[in-house]
Amino acid sequence: MARVTLVGSPALTEYENLQDLQSLRERYLESPPLGILVVASLFRESGAEVSVVDSNRQYLHHLEQSLPQEQFTEALATTLAAEQSDLFGFATICSSYYVTLDCARRLKKKRPDCAIVLGGPQATATATETLERFPAVDFVLGGEVEGAVGPFLELRDSAPADVPGLFYRDGDKVLHTAPLPPPDLDATPWPALDLWGEGKVSKLALEAGRGCPFDCKFCSTNSYFGRRYRVKSPERLIEEAATSCGRYDTNHVVMIHDHFAARK
Fold first, then answer.
1. Vertex 36: Cα angle to 31 and 39 (nearest 5)
2. Kind plus residue range of the DSSP H or E element containing 220
3. CA distance 205 to 252
4. What is the C-alpha separation between 13 and 220, in angstroms, rounded?
5. Rounded Cα distance, 220 and 241, in Å
6. ∠ CA(155), CA(192), CA(110), 5° rounding?
7. Could you tell me which residues come within 8 angstroms of residue 139 by beta carbon, excluding any fewer than 6 positions away?
8. Helix, strand, or coil (residue 10)
9. Is 58 helix (H, G, I), strand (E, B) or coil?
10. Average pLDDT value for residue range 56-74
11. Which of 49, 73, 119, 150 has fewest C-beta within 10 Å?
């Protein structure tokens, strides 16, 4: 059985002051990180044993110990290297991409036997350049990964050309395959909330849908989702809200979407 560790994007590393970071605890650190937990469910469905490391919680803990900010990537890499996994997957966003890449580089030095794959908007937008310049990164799994996780686990080393949406190296060349059509959001798995933990939260985020119909030059959403605007059905959202709110003892729900009100 494959053992996989997934790492959330360190969105809060732009904050150097502990007091500022603590003030954001309720907003960013209490509610389960949806994206990485959905990916965890996809890996589980494909037969992998999965663990999740929340880099933002790790960063808060790092600063609470009065450790220098510049030592965080080394500390995170040390934590990850202790995981009993052969595959590490990193979520990526623009503002903290340099932190993710530095952590991946340090992890590879500690665990040269492991495979490192990046996913998410920033890695997708810069996949070729990333693989050309950062040898620690083995793969980029671009775009929405529903339908691609299973083939990736099975074929990444033997037949990478058969994995949808995969960027990989062939000698000195970086090649990539075509992604699958966008998934039916009502058929996507629920986030693996058990990997986040229990306890009360003040408010709970739910993924209401994906994509935006517009083509703003400053935004990666159009390239990542291909301007395909979708919303989950009311039935699916109500079911998720009722179940998840009961689990975390809250009645405050936040609908997460790139542009929820685009369709009146």
1. 135
2. none
3. 9
4. 20
5. 28
6. 55
7. 115, 116, 117, 118, 131, 152, 156, 160, 166, 167, 168
8. coil
9. helix
10. 93
11. 49
Both tokens of 198, joined, read 């229990």
Report, as an integer, the average pLDDT of 59-66. 92
Structural element, H or E, at residue 188: none
What is residue 51's predicted lDDT score, i.e. its pLDDT? 97
pLDDT digits (tens, 9 = 90+) for 104-113: 999 999 999 9
CA distances for 207 relative to 98, 190, 196, 232, 255, angstroms? 26, 10, 16, 8, 6
For residue 248, the Cα-to-chain-centroid distance in whole angstroms is: 22
Rg (CA), the chain: 18
Two structure tokens written together for 240:
């998720």
Q: What letter represents residue 204's amino acid?
A: L
- Cα separation, 198 vs 172, whole angstroms: 46
State the pLDDT confidence band at 26, using cuts at 50, 70 and 90.
low
Q: State how far the Cα of 146 lies from the Cα of 90, in Å rounded to an integer.
A: 16
- Rounded mean pLDDT of 168-197? 94
8 A C-beta contact, residue 9 and residue 116: no
Q: Amino acid identity, residue 14?
A: E
Q: How far apart are CA 69 and CA 21, in angstroms?
A: 12
φ/ψ region of 197 (left if φ > 0, alpha if ψ in -120 to 50, else beta) reads left
pLDDT per position as a tens digit, 136-179? 999 999 999 999 999 999 999 999 999 999 999 999 999 999 99
Question: pLDDT value at position 249?
Answer: 87
Segment 228-255 shows an average pLDDT of 92
Q: How buried is 181 (Cβ within 10 angstroms: 0-12 exposed, 13-18 middle, 19+ buried)?
A: exposed
